[in-house]
Write a structure and sequence with these properties.
Elements: H1 18-24, E1 33-41, E2 44-51, E3 63-67, E4 85-86, H2 99-118, E5 121-122, E6 125-136, H3 140-147, E7 174-186, E8 190-191, H4 194-206, H5 218-234, H6 263-269, H7 305-309
Helix pairs in contact: 2-5
């Protein structure tokens, strides 16, 4: 119906079903469900859902990231093996995507987050696989051969120590970085039910872990996912836009995204010190205007004009 009884506003439309969303958004990053089965084993029924893999079997994945947008207990550990999955606080830079590709991926991720939020779903994450490559630097060996005059005592005289022969240091032989990003949204079946509500209340208010805990109501979870994953790591930075501070980091403003934290503040984010929230950390390349502290963005302390001018009761320097 277009309106409720006695002219009441119409109820909100029902949330989209999965197959409807998949048909309307063919480029959705939610992993495709290719099969749903129910098995009977020893008198018990087991339900199995088969989904596509985020990664191509033909390409080796060197790093795996599971990104939710939360920060309490989300990374900061040393890798023990090559197959370990890294998390939010382990990311050190934005994804190196072409600007147009980054815009399209960001748009699709926002659509997927809106769909999951409308269906009261939480605990999903963006699984990212990074395939790295190595490029040799041309001329590195030739520069070394011409720079070294002697290889040992008595063989010749060098203008500088060996470890400073290439512009004050040693020339790198190659550079290594990301070549391919494979990604998809996984774990989309958890709704914000009564058990998750209890977990949220206990972690947030009883254990005092703050807003950085993973479990959150669906609306807040989806908004945080967009801010701290889509905007912080994928979406192109808009020139001239003021960075927004969220729990002590600047998602859209800092080249390091939300991970531009000092060691003491990382301990707070990792949950090792729950006495207070992590302080705001401005990036040195992002100076903020005066008065921005009222809007939640860091600003340098305001200096009184009277103090600078040597007002009454405040002697100037040298007086």
């Amino acid at each position: 119906p277009l309106a409720g009884p006695r002219g009441a506003p119409a109820p909100p439309p029902p949330p989209q079903r999965y197959h409807t969303h998949a048909k309307r958004h063919p480029h959705s990053l939610i992993n495709r469900i290719v099969g749903a089965h129910e098995l009977s084993l020893y008198g018990q029924r087991v339900r199995v859902m088969v989904v596509e893999s985020c990664f191509q079997a033909s390409r080796e994945v060197h790093e795996r990231y599971d990104l939710k947008g939360s920060w309490v207990g989300r990374g900061g550990k040393m890798l023990k093996s090559r197959g370990d999955v890294l998390k939010d606080l382990d990311v050190r830079s934005r994804f190196l995507l072409a600007e147009e590709d980054a815009r399209r991926i960001s748009r699709h991720l926002r659509e997927d987050a809106a769909f999951l939020k409308a269906n009261n779903l939480i605990d999903y994450s963006l699984l990212v696989g990074v395939t790295k490559t190595r490029y040799e630097i041309e001329g590195a060996a030739q520069r070394r051969d011409t720079a070294v005059v002697g290889s040992g005592p008595g063989d010749g005289v060098a203008s500088a120590p060996f470890h400073r022969l290439d512009s004050g240091g040693l020339a790198a032989a190659y550079v290594e970085g990301a070549e391919l990003y494979s990604m998809g949204i996984i774990d989309i079946l958890q709704d914000f039910n009564l058990r998750k509500r209890a977990e949220y209340l206990i972690k947030r208010f009883v254990c005092c872990q703050g807003k950085g805990v993973s479990v959150h109501p669906a609306g807040e979870y989806g908004d945080r996912f967009v801010r701290n994953v889509v905007e912080a790591l994928i979406e192109p930075v808009r020139l001239g836009a003021e960075p927004r501070v969220i729990r002590g980091y600047t998602p859209a403003g800092s080249p390091l995204g939300m991970f531009d934290l000092k060691q003491s503040e990382r301990r707070v984010a990792l949950g090792r010190n729950r006495t207070r929230a992590a302080p705001v950390v401005p990036h040195p390349q992002q100076p903020q205007p005066f008065g921005a502290e009222r809007s939640g963005v860091w600003a340098p302390p305001r200096t009184s004009p009277r103090l600078l001018a040597g007002g009454p009761g405040r002697p100037t320097q040298g007086s």
